[in-house]
Amino acid sequence: MIRVALVDDQQMVRAGFRMVIDSQPDLTVVGEAGDGDAAVALLRTTPADVVLMDVRMPGTDGIEATRQVTALPDPPRVVVLTTFDLDEYVVAAIGAGASGFLLKDAPPEEMLAAVRTVHAGDSVIAASSTRRLLQHVAPMLRGAAPTTVGGGTELAELTPREREVLVQMALGATNTEIAQRLFVSEATVKTHVGRVLAKTGSRDRVQAVVLAYRTGLVSPADLLRDA
């Protein structure tokens, strides 16, 4: 059973999310909060696997709440919800440690898929935002890179093939696209992705992509060439 926490300042929105989530046999809502401070307090005492976090709330907003929640011991994965498909929200959410980003008006089945996908260790970013996100985040990550390729201990254990897979992940490719580009099966790609996450200590694909740019394995120029 996947345990879900709902954080939104609108009670009707939370009620709608709860109705949809609790209708699923593999999902259950374990708690609700109406603002960021309440969310952090809730998640300190209530175990959850995935948090649906509104980005715009009075007081402590969803970005800061995400930062605090992902810093907790054994933290849940956070999917940030917003009514605005704006790059700055996506960048801020991922920078705060979110595993996903989804528009609040997405169809219910898309929200449910996001919860399950993030719980499985994959990332969820609205398709329309993926490339713009990478274009915005990559230069900032590279500029703050403390390590370089070859010297970065986080990447030292990766095989050449695993590095190839990580590069493709950082370019925004899906598992299907990676399989086509590397001429392997999708099942093989999933295995490689799992090993990349394990060896780099990344909680999910988003963290692995951030690491790829931060260490210089991939640069913003690579992203532009791949466009």
UniProtKB/TrEMBL annotation:
CDD domains: LuxR_C_like, REC_NarL-like. Pfam families: GerE, Response_reg. Coiled coil: none annotated. The modification 4-aspartylphosphate is found at D54. InterPro entries: CheY-like_superfamily, NreC/VraR/RcsB-like_REC, Sig_transdc_resp-reg_C-effctor, Sig_transdc_resp-reg_receiver, Tscrpt_reg_LuxR_C, WalR-like. The keyword Chloroplast does not apply. Residues 151-216 form the HTH luxR-type domain. This is Two component transcriptional regulator, LuxR family. It comes from Geodermatophilus aquaeductus.
